[in-house]
Design a protein that fits this description.
34% helix, seven-stranded parallel sheet, Arc Repressor Mutant, subunit A, 22% strand, EC 5.6.2.4, GIY-YIG endonuclease, DNA binding, Replication restart protein PriA, alpha/beta
């Protein structure tokens, strides 16, 4: 890339992306020995901070020979990659996201790279070789230093174990450092650790038949050792194929939890009969072969052909297919075509729960050549998928929103399934990106095609399709001649008057569940609130349990007998009496998924009930276990939050019950009607997916006459769209404008409000009052002891330089943050806020 001028040595510099929230790149000096090996996109280790107090993993964004003018460049410490793990497309994506989402490029890199690709540092202690004043040490310190001499270095934890329980290790180290007896340093290491398998093989001296027979004869007097050798030969038939010996055998197979065989194997290794060695074992097996062929119905084949035809002149196509229409089979057909052309494919899903079921279906077609990427995987597993994409091992990856950051360089197709889902939007930390929109930009740079799929598309997406900016293909026939479910509204006011309610269950829903269980069919119940009860209240004085850090009530979780804040994680024990008046009449109000599960177990004690929400799916394989139990018919009723609405497919579900529909509809947000329709329609679509049996959906509501519920019953998405799009146009909301929300935060409400007022005033003076709303307190005005004020900015999509507007907004934010009286204020920008 660079040439050297005769007799003149060029000093190289690298502009690096550091994983910290600063707006600019940092320039570091490249040591002479690294000049020939350092490449753009490679990871490096660099010192950072005062006196180089921190060690960071950075990514090389640019190589040049211009030193920085504002500061003295420090040296790069170490190069981690022989071949870059970050592609040019990714660097371009990082830059675009930082600009578009009004954050720092370091924020983007920090989220994009899995933790396993970032180094960690650990303080270690070693003996100072120049120490020569033993008289300064206490008796205990002398003993400890004698032990320390036996080791090259020890971690704080290891030193603590040597010192013994109860020792103040930091104070001890401080004393030894003060006496210059030890040196404390940072040991830097990569977090990623390959999975290793310990194996053994016969020493090459015994690979020939004659030598092997001699060995077995020699071991006749040592029957246990002879048995271990024979056991090895039974698993490794090296006489038929000598090459098998080089691959060896897993050590645990020979040990067989038998102390005698373990001892014998150790002796055989010591005597060089066996060789011990280690091999890297991929965390994802590479043995499964494709087993199933996908055969499309006529309707699916027509949809697939139309999509390919649209791709001839459109880069983005929307597949609007009703629930149960078999969109997944269409995706598989398109994936096969893309892979057949030599391109890479990314398949995005909104929820880990959905990946669990979809992956099984895809593996039947593609085997284990498919990578899987989501946050429930360990750091090491995610690094292996990342490196697998770089090496070409994985041409096809299925993942959640973070999968858009994988190092693809030859994408042909991106599929965004359930594209309307809010899970694709990251809220914290920065970048607050939407994976669907990032995927479209990524595809644009790599000249790939994007397929957006949904039964209830986002209004903005459907608008783009109707305007001709996206292609549109519709699939309105359920797979296998299954029919859409029969949706019924249950009037809760009427049931309450007639006193037929059974706790939170209407008599209609209770009876339907009972009948479903008798038919040995399955049911799904949807309540979009976890926990046992939203809050606890005193009947005498109206005291309510509230979070001390946030302006919200604490949610009661009965199983753990505690009150929790779902915003900051604060926990409290359940009070026996009211803290205010001492009354014993402290009751739970409202209900969540945990309470429904509890009541179901009382109503139907012989039935198996499972719950799927954030509380029950924290463990790595919890999703998989719940879905497998339900799919195999071990569970009669599944209760869950919105996790269960997202594309799950179960043949035996014939009943869906929906609680609290009114709360979804009347949420104070301009998208509330759209989201209520999407959520209710999606969960309703889980019922009756098998041909020859129509499912039933019961929606419990206080007002059955609500227009939105009538549209749900009629599956009238187009009617909803026409009404909503007109209202959006009348009041200038997306898709007719861009929204940017600025949230001002401070621990002092007065300071927070003053900063928000000043920012809003400056923006209004420049942009006009019609474009600025607020500042206003959000629904939850205090979170983690910080008071919040929101400013909403509306920017027209046409005739406005949005890039210049964002730059102006950022300048005004910087003015606030550099004001001496407002320096502790934080201001968060959320572009395209939901």
């Amino acid at each position: 890339m660079f040439s050297l001028i005769e007799s003149e040595e060029i000093t190289f510099f690298a502009d690096l992306i550091l994983p910290i929230p600063v707006p600019k790149l940092f320039t570091y000096r490249v040591p002479r020995g690294m000049a020939d090996i350092l490449k753009i996109g490679a990871r490096v280790i660099v010192p950072f901070g005062k006196k180089n107090s921190r060690v960071l993993t950075a990514v090389v964004a640019k190589l040049h020979n211009s030193p920085p003018t504002a500061y003295q460049a420090r040296y790069i410490s170490e190069v981690l990659d022989e071949y870059p793990l970050v592609t040019g497309y990714q660097l371009e994506l990082f830059r675009w996201m930082a600009e578009y989402y009004m954050c720092c490029i370091g924020d983007v890199m920090n989220v994009a790279l899995p933790s396993g690709l970032k180094i960690s540092s650990q303080s270690k202690v070693q003996l100072n070789p120049d120490f020569d004043y033993p008289e300064l040490l206490t008796e205990f310190e002398s003993i400890l230093l004698a032990e320390l001499k036996k080791h090259p270095a020890l971690s704080y934890e290891e030193l603590g174990r040597l010192a013994g329980e109860g020792t103040n290790v930091p104070a001890l180290i401080k004393s030894l450092v003060g006496k210059k007896a030890v040196i404390v340093f940072e040991e830097v290491r990569e977090k990623y650790i390959p999975k290793m398998i310990r194996k053994v093989r016969l020493h090459p001296n015994y690979e020939e038949k004659e030598q092997l027979l001699v060995l077995l004869q020699r071991l006749e007097k040592l029957p246990k050792q002879q048995e271990v050798v024979m056991r090895y030969l039974s698993h490794v038939p090296m006489q038929r194929n000598p090459a098998l010996n080089q691959k060896g055998l897993d050590k645990t197979i020979l040990n067989q939890d038998d102390e005698l065989s373990q001892s014998s194997l150790t002796t055989l290794i010591k005597n060089q009969v066996f060789e011990a060695f280690e091999v890297i074992q991929p965390r994802f097996s590479d043995n499964a072969a494709p087993q199933a062929e996908i055969k499309l119905t006529d309707a699916q084949q027509t949809a697939s052909s139309k999509i390919m035809a649209q791709f001839e002149h459109q880069n983005v196509v929307l597949l609007h297919g009703i629930t149960g229409s078999g969109k997944t089979e269409v995706y598989i057909e398109l994936i096969q075509q893309a892979l057949g052309s030599g391109s890479q494919v990314l398949y995005l899903l909104p929820e880990i729960a959905l990946t669990t079921q979809i992956v099984v279906r895809l593996q039947r077609v593609f085997g284990d050549k498919m990578g899987i990427y989501h946050s429930k995987f360990s750091d090491n597993e995610r690094v292996e998928v990342w490196k697998g994409v770089v090496s070409g091992q994985y041409q096809f990856v299925v993942g959640v929103r973070s999968a858009v950051f994988l190092p693809f360089d030859n994408l042909g197709l991106i599929i965004v399934d359930e594209e309307h889902e809010t899970s694709y939007k990251q809220h914290d930390p920065a970048p607050r990106y939407h994976a669907r929109d990032v995927a479209i930009m990524l595809a644009h740079w790599q000249q790939a095609k994007v397929l957006l799929g949904s039964a209830t598309p986002a209004l903005e997406t459907y608008f783009q399709a109707k305007q001709g900016r996206y292609g549109l293909v519709e699939l309105f026939q359920r797979f296998g001649d299954a029919t859409l479910p029969n949706i019924l509204l249950v009037n809760l006011q009427k049931e309450k008057r007639q006193k037929t309610m059974k706790n939170e269950f209407s008599s209609a829903l209770h009876d339907a569940l009972e009948a479903n269980i008798a038919r040995k069919e399955q049911s799904i119940l949807f309540q979009n609130r976890r926990g046992y009860s939203p809050y606890m209240q005193c009947e005498d004085c109206d005291w309510t349990a509230e979070c001390p850090n946030c302006a919200v009530s604490l949610t009661y979780h009965q199983r753990d007998a505690e009150l929790r804040c779902h915003y900051c994680g604060h926990k409290e024990q359940v009070p026996r009496t009211c803290p205010t008046c001492g009354s014993t009449k402290v009751r739970t109000i409202g209900f969540g998924t945990e309470k429904l599960e509890d009541q179901l177990q009382i109503f139907f004690p012989e039935s198996k009930v499972l719950r799927m929400d954030l509380d029950t799916t924290r463990a790595k394989n919890a999703y998989q276990q719940i879905i497998q139990e339900f799919e195999t018919g071990q569970v009669d009723i599944l209760v869950g939050t919105q996790m269960i609405t997202k594309g799950l497919d179960f043949d035996n579900v014939s009943l869906v019950g929906i609680f609290d529909a009114d709360r979804l509809i009347h949420f104070p947000d301009f998208r509330a009607t759209e989201r209520a329709f999407q959520m209710i329609t999606q969960v309703s679509g889980r019922a009756g997916r098998r041909a020859g049996r129509q499912g039933t959906v019961l929606i419990q509501t206080q007002n059955p006459e609500q227009p939105i519920l009538q549209k749900v019953i009629q599956n009238d998405y187009k009617g909803l769209y026409e009404e909503e799009i007109q209202e959006r146009q009348d009041f200038n909301y997306p898709p007719f404008c861009r929204l940017i929300k600025l949230t001002v935060r401070h621990t002092d409400k007065i300071i927070s409000h003053r900063a928000a007022e000043r920012l809003a005033a400056e923006l209004t003076d420049a942009l006009g009052s019609s474009r600025i709303l607020g500042p206003e307190e959000p629904l939850v005005e205090r979170i983690r002891n910080q008071f919040l004020f929101d400013i909403l900015i509306k920017i027209e999509r046409d005739k406005v330089n949005i890039k210049a507007v964002k730059a102006f907004i950022q300048d005004r934010i910087n003015d606030i943050l550099t004001d001496k009286g407002l320096r502790q204020v934080s201001i968060v920008a959320d572009v395209d806020c939901l």
